[in-house]
Specification:
Layout: H1 8-22, H2 27-57
């Protein structure tokens, strides 16, 4: 029944509805914001991918006890 889900005239109707809803003045600003968000998303995904490969080659060391490092306790004084 729905063989061709999106035909060109469907896209035309969607574009007209978007222009009517948001107005032609806000569309360039929205497109700029979307583009900036996509660039940030791509760079963050790339950084996470690089960090993931770097972390898999390095074995993490055992964490030291907080008391040995002089970390403040709940009372506010460093534990010894």
């Amino acid at each position: 029944m729905l063989r061709n889900g999106l035909e060109p005239w469907h896209l035309l109707i969607v574009a007209i509805m978007i222009i009517l809803l948001f107005g032609s003045k806000k569309l360039p600003e929205a497109a700029r914001g979307l583009g900036k968000s996509m660039r940030i998303l791509k760079s963050e995904a790339k950084a996470m991918k690089e960090d993931g490969t770097a972390q898999s080659t390095v074995t993490p060391a055992e964490p030291a006890e907080p008391a040995a490092q002089g970390v403040p306790t709940a009372e506010g004084t460093p534990a010894r």
